[in-house]
Design brief:
This protein has 20 helices and 20 strands. With 590 residues, the protein is of the alpha+beta class. The longest helix has 32 residues. 41% of the residues lie in helices and 19% in strands. A hairpin with a 6-residue loop joins strand 19 and strand 20.
């Protein structure tokens, strides 16, 4: 060490080394001279104040040398009011909902010099602001008042240049939905404080995020994203085709969903009219009701599939059984008719393909009222369906359930359920007999089997696949083959008369179609529902499901099948092969 450096070091350290002695003298210990005590106390004060000023100087130097982004990030973390939320992603990692930073304007009335000047200056920058409201808030004795939440960066810059004392900005988190209308009913919305108030956003809060917010622990630190089962590509296709069908058939509403029958995962859910998730106020419009979970409907002939499964599974009916459909079925003054009456004895497959109300009702009556009610309860049709969506409706079940109720419910009248509830039951009819609760979260096959419940025999499921495929080949679901034939589809139509003023209307219909593909190893189910579609010239004036919901399902199936790894085939197995091809279903563990 050079002599110069040694000398400087000694001079810098000498006050520190002398500090113990200075403290002793300043305290008057050891009987020092009076002048020495005074000098020691003055020197101690100089050292204390010097230390304080050095600390302040070092802090200012640190802020001056730190990058602007770091300071901004520190400020955001310290004054954020609307707490951060985790990103919501689709099954492929695409962002459905995320947080962005936004600034909000506040005032401190006690620090204001001239209220009128502040109000005039602020309303010049914010022309949509209410001057009287601003004046009322700023002319109070409160220490803090909100003036405007979520202002633009340009507005923030202009207000900052005004240099108004007592006017400041606070960074907040704002929820943004890049898809706008694409999945509004599924995602739901948040309020001004970034708290979930509907849909999956509310479900996220109910899982513990709300408690973290209250405890101050849900900070802007990165949170684990929520991975949904929704496939954004499939969601787009379903919405696109439903919007086209709604316009073409002049329906008042349309809805549809795509579900993986093996896991219960919901790949798409659309209900039109919908709303932009970035504008949650529009979700309050009754027209934007989520018809798949919050609405309950009589599902019409799509419900017949459940009746067939019950009858076949009970052993009281087989595919060779004959049902009397030679005329109407009477219950006192009530008469049940067929829409396309054959007026003859029908085999069970014919009852399905001709969609005979009379034949289906006779099958249900063979099983009995108690057995019918127990079977529907086993399939989850008599209780409210619970999913991650908080919004759900309970089914409307008859208070007194007699033979007439069983006869009408057998073909989809007299019992109103949420459409997603019916989808869950039909899944079980084609996936080997397993009732799997639907979910909006990603789920593996093993996780699905952990919550699955056996409701019908594997051989019954094989017979239902046969009937649904047969219906597409030469029954009421033939339009499905016209659009999606290479994907080996099957399905069931449903046309229900709506109850208007306590009576069934012949002209206001709810049409549904349930399509499944591929029928030799079912993977996916599509439900399409049109509310009050109109007959067209090309449909020969008919407004039944086979003419509108059926073709729409076929178009959706043809577009999403390649996205889901299903390639078109030229050599499809014969329909009869499905009666022996249920090894896949049998191989699944109990």
């Amino acid at each position: 060490m050079s002599p110069l450096v040694r000398t400087i070091t000694e001079r810098l350290l000498s006050p520190v080394r002398a500090l113990p002695g200075i403290v002793r003298r300043a305290a008057g210990r050891g009987r020092p001279e009076p002048n020495a005590v005074a000098r020691a106390r003055i020197l101690l004060c100089m050292l204390v104040f010097g230390g304080v000023y050095c600390t302040i100087s070092a802090r200012l130097a640190m802020y001056a040398s730190a990058p602007e982004s770091a300071l901004t990030r520190r400020a955001v973390n310290s004054d954020a009011v609307a707490s951060a939320r985790p990103d919501i992603l689709d099954r492929n990692g695409l962002v459905l909902a995320t947080d962005v930073k936004t600034s909000s304007l506040y005032g401190e009335p006690k620090r204001l010099i001239d209220v009128d000047e502040a109000v005039e200056s602020l309303t010049a920058v914010l022309p949509d602001a209410n001057a009287d409201e601003f004046r009322t808030r700023l002319d109070s004795k409160r220490g803090f008042v909100w003036l405007k939440r979520e202002i633009t960066p340009q507005q923030q810059r202009e207000i900052y240049k005004l240099g108004l004392p007592g006017i400041g900005f606070m960074s907040e988190n704002r929820r943004v939905y890049p898809g706008n209308n694409l999945a509004g009913h599924v995602l739901g919305s948040t309020n001004i404080d970034n708290q979930g108030i509907a849909g999956l956003e509310k479900w996220v809060d109910n899982r513990g995020l709300a408690e973290l917010h209250l405890a101050g622990l849900a900070t802007d630190r990165q949170q684990e994203p929520v991975d949904l089962s929704i496939d954004l590509r499939v969601q787009h296709v379903v919405r696109d085709e439903l919007a086209a069908a709604k316009e073409k058939f002049r329906a008042i509403a349309a809805a549809g969903t795509v579900v993986d029958v093996r896991t219960g995962e919901i790949l798409a859910m659309v209900s039109l009219p919908d709303f932009d998730a970035n504008e949650p106020a529009k979700a309050l419009d009754p027209k934007t009701l989520n018809r798949l979970t919050t609405g309950v409907f009589e599902m019409g002939s799509t419900f017949k599939a459940l009746t067939f499964a019950m009858a076949l599974d009970s052993g009281k009916v087989n595919l060779n059984s004959m049902m009397d459909a030679r005329g109407a079925l009477s219950f006192g003054r009530f008469r049940i008719h067929d829409y396309h009456a054959q007026n003859r004895m029908l085999s069970v497959p014919e009852v399905f393909t001709y969609s005979s109300n009379v034949g289906t009702a006779r099958m249900a009556l063979l099983c009995g009222v108690d057995a019918h009610k127990a079977f529907l309860e086993k399939l989850g049709q008599l209780d409210r369906l619970r999913t991650e969506l908080p919004e759900s409706a309970a089914p409307i079940v008859p208070k007194r359930w007699g033979e007439l109720n069983t006869a009408t419910i057998a073909f989809g009248h007299g019992l109103a359920v949420a459409p997603l509830q019916a989808v869950m039951a039909v899944n079980a009819l084609v996936n080997g007999g397993w009732l799997i609760p639907p979910t909006f979260m990603k789920r593996t096959p093993d996780e699905a089997m952990a919550v699955a419940k056996r409701v019908i025999k594997p051989e019954t499921s094989a017979k239902m696949r046969y009937l649904m495929r047969l219906n597409a080949v030469k029954g009421s679901a033939s339009k499905l083959v016209e659009f999606a034939g290479p994907y080996n589809p099957g399905g069931k139509t449903g046309t229900a008369e709506k109850v208007i003023g306590g009576r069934y209307s012949k002209t206001r219909l709810l049409t549904t179609f349930t399509g499944v593909f591929p029928m030799d190893d079912p993977q996916y189910l599509i439900l399409v529902m049109l509310d009050e579609p109109q007959g067209l010239k090309e449909t020969y004036g008919f407004a039944t499901a086979g003419w509108n919901a059926g073709p729409t399902t076929g178009k959706i199936m043809a577009r999403i099948a390649p996205l889901l790894g299903q390639m078109p085939r030229t050599n499809l197995p014969p329909v009869e092969s499905l009666l022996t091809g249920y090894q896949v279903a049998q191989s699944r563990p109990e």
